[in-house]
Structures are given as structure tokens and as C-alpha cells.
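Hey team,

Filing this mostly as a record. A colleague (T.K.) asked me to run one chain through the structure pipeline before their review meeting, and I want the input and output archived in the tracker in case anyone asks later how it was produced. No errors, nothing strange. Just documentation.

Input sequence:
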Amino acid sequence: MARIDSITLTPFEVPLASPFRIATMTNHSANGVFISITAGGKTGWGECLPFHAINGENQATVMASLRTLAPAIHGEDSRDLRRLIELCESILPAQTTAISGMDMALHDLAAQRAGLPLYRFLGGTKRELPTDLTIRILPPKEAAAKAKKIIDQGHEAIKIKLGDSPMNDAERVATIREVAEDAILRVDANQAYDRLTALHLLESIADFDIQFCEQPVKRHDYQGLAFLHQNSTVPVMADESCFSPSDAFALLSHNCCNLINVKLCKSGGVLRAQEIASITQAAFGRCMMGGMAETRLGVTAAAHVASSHSAFHFFDLDAHQGHKEDVIDGGIQTVRGSVVLPEKAGLGARPKQEFLDRFETETLA
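Output structure:
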């Protein structure tokens, strides 16, 4: 029996190359927590990267949550994945980022023990994962210059952040389309608008061939999302509205959308992300695999999940791209716009030891 005998937490900070601005917040660094769980001579790694304006967590709350969760799973059989994850959820049901780190580390351990890359352990097969790159809220000319660089790197899709004003948003999209004539364009409003403003904005940019718009209205405005789903010529995707499998069921069954953005830190990890994907697929919907501002560890876990389920049609696996420093050994690589998964057992990624040594690691068990 592979009982959990050690759990460590390392709070970390990675500066961003430039401030990342969205409608609800601006980040200057990625502040998260790495978690390691050791059992049976193997160590699994997880990452918690909270966005306080989205999930109500920050680095301090994640650390507090993990200090609460660790004693509950210490000494337990690490192979009993579902029971351990459900135990964590029963203790702190709203702390999805903290739980996602536990879930990720436990899945890394399980796949290592099976001798399989995580995507194969989850029942998936290797597939092409063409990722977009995101342009934060910028003046139109700066955004266009950024778009040009993205296309030159081999990416076929660009995600454009909206939310400073409908006029600025429309001008930003138009300017980007001028320099990226053949690119797939997606937009993301991060809850910036009411339903009527969002409808007017989406209709004003519809001629630029927008693939979809993420979360144009507030998280709990299901009726507003449904209104846009039924009236906008630009398809809408739920992001902040969907944290859990039950959220996905409610959104899809009430005809609010047929597109769902799944993020491990938002859904609580691998197990629930797969469940959201299955619910969405059963309702004839499609999923995107996204992220917050994770390092390549968290993005690698997301890519494994994206390869494990055919509900994932869209890939936003660029969370680490704006970091000043790459702090991960192993993990995914992005080659001419597509993410390539590692073939080592488990995640195939871990934090660099020299990076961990800069911070204070706390051993909980």
C-alpha cells in the first residue's frame, strides 16, 4: 500500500514580462503554491495558481487551505484518488484552487506508479493541441504589433482580451484583424458587460469572423448568457460561470451556451475537469482547456487532460508564456503553435530545484 508519508508546500512568485490586464484585475506576477506529495518512494507534483477576482482565492488563502487539507490525507492510501479528492472537497468545498493542487499531485503519483504519461493513464491518446496566444487589454496599435508576432511564431489562433470599453474593444479587434487576416480570432470579456452592451459589442465585431466570446456577462447572470446565446451571431462560451460539473449541467440544460472553458484551478483539478467535459459532450457541446497564469507545470497538467477527452476542441495553453523565467524541468513544449506533451510517466514535469531553493518550503507531514 502506497500511504502518503510527506506533503510539502512552496509558495512562489514568478514576475511577468509585462503587466497582464483583464477586465477584472491586473497581474504583475504569478503568485502560487507548488505542492509535492510523496508515497511509496515516488513524489507527485501539483500547482495552485489563484486569480482572486475569479475564484476568490489568493496565495495566502491557498496556503491556509492546504494546511487544513494535508492532515486529512496524510497516511491515507494515495491510490484511492476519488475518495481523497472527495474528502478534500467535503472539508473545503469552495477552495477549488487549493484542491486542484492536491488533485494534480495525486494524479501525478498515480500515473507514475502505473508507468504511464498522465494522458494515457486517463485513457487518452496523443493528439495535436494547437494553442492560441492571448493579447491582454492594450492600445490597438500595441495589440496589432503583438498579433503580428504571434502569427510569426506559427500560431493560428489569437485570443483578445476585452473589457476597457466597447469602443476600445471594437477598435482593438478591428486593428488586429487587419494584421492577422487569416488567423482564428477569439475574444474574452471576463464578465465586463451587461447583456445589452455585450450584444451590441458582439454585433459590432461579428464581421471580423470571431470564433466565440468567453464570459461576456457576470458569472451568475445565467439569463444574460442565455440571451446572448440565443441572440448573438458570435457564439458565447461560459468561463467564470462554470466551476463544477453541476455548473456545467445547469448551463447546458438551461440553454445558456454550448461552449465551456475548463480550467484545472477553477474546476478543482483533473477529476472534475474530466467530468465537466463528459457532461458537455453529452449535451452536444464542446470544451476549451484554459488556464490562469500557471507555470509550465500547471499548463502541462492541463494539456494532459486536454488529450484525455474528445470534448476538448479548443486549446488556450499559454498561461506560462508571459513569465520572465521558465521554472520547470520537463513538461510541455510549444512548437510552431502546437503543444507537445512529454512521454515520461506522470506529468513529466517538476519545479526546478534551484527555483524552489529561493523560497521557504513547509513540510506538513
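Quick notes for T.K.: The CA atoms of residues 151 and 180 lie 7 Å apart. Residues 96-114 form the longest helix (19 residues).
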